[in-house]
Amino acid sequence: MVRSCRRPFISPSTLLKSLYFMDIFYIRRAALTVFLTAIASVTTAQAADVPLAIIGPHEYDLPVDFKPFNVLVQYGDGNAAGLSYNSLGQRKPEGGSHTWAGMTKYVHFRSFDAIPHVGFAFEVIQTESYVLAHGTNYGGLGGTISGPAVWFKPNKNSTFGIQTFLQTPSGTRESLATHYWSNLSSFMFDYEWKHFSFDGDVGAIVSMTKHLDGQHSYKPGTTFHSNLRFSWKAHRVVEPFLAFDWQNTAATRDRTVQNWIDNSSSREVAMGGGVMFTLTKSISLTTRYSHSVEGRNTPETNAYYMKFVYLW
Q1: The pLDDT value given to residue 40
Q2: Other beta carbons within 10 Å of 69
Q3: Confidence (pTM)
Q4: Taking phi first (over 0 means left), then psi (-120 to 50 degrees means alpha), and beta for anything else, what does residue 178 get?
């Protein structure tokens, strides 16, 4: 990983070598959330996962002053939510579901001579999901998410930046489309020690009002979230880490009758652990398991995560 603000025009081979020996993916910012269909139901808060829960170690350990390069990321998430939290924060054997979510992400990274020591990226992400609940199952493509990110390095060991994305209301199935636009924005930070790494983000998801012919109009509540990762650089190939994820979503408002929807606000805290594998100088694989420790009006997180990254 890049340890300092380097001069412009680092060669691709030098960058790849650095990535290999320093656990490549500062470049792998998970600029998105497994928030595929969170708040997709406007009558209850059905967030089946915490926004940006997909991120791993070195997610925001980003370079500056580099030649342009590209990254392809495939995320996977399986959540067996057999239980759910009610409005009192009690876990009940109801309201759960099994979901499998994926995101295919392309990212283009570049820097500019006119703006030294600052990195830029633009991402395009396609979401996919499959749901098994209440004796029915369905799957398909959800909204497309795209947007920029920009960052700088306050010192040679740290990174700080901001990312903002727009999610479309579309979907290949009615149940997978949100029918409203959303903005996902967050601050991101990273600090690197010799043997440890600390990554995190703090952000919010703001949604537009949902309008459908012949139905009431609904305004989903704003979601605030934070995601933290603390890893141990045990080996250049194997890096175990701990994960903490939190989200809090405000209630949904029925704009037609100007009422708040009962029990539509939610919150959740989830914790877990995983391992990042740096397989080659341009390929890495990250796996993790997380489970809810507290929640309200949401299915529990009982999820396995996978992340595959290829750099060229």
Answers
A1: 31
A2: 18
A3: 0.82
A4: alpha
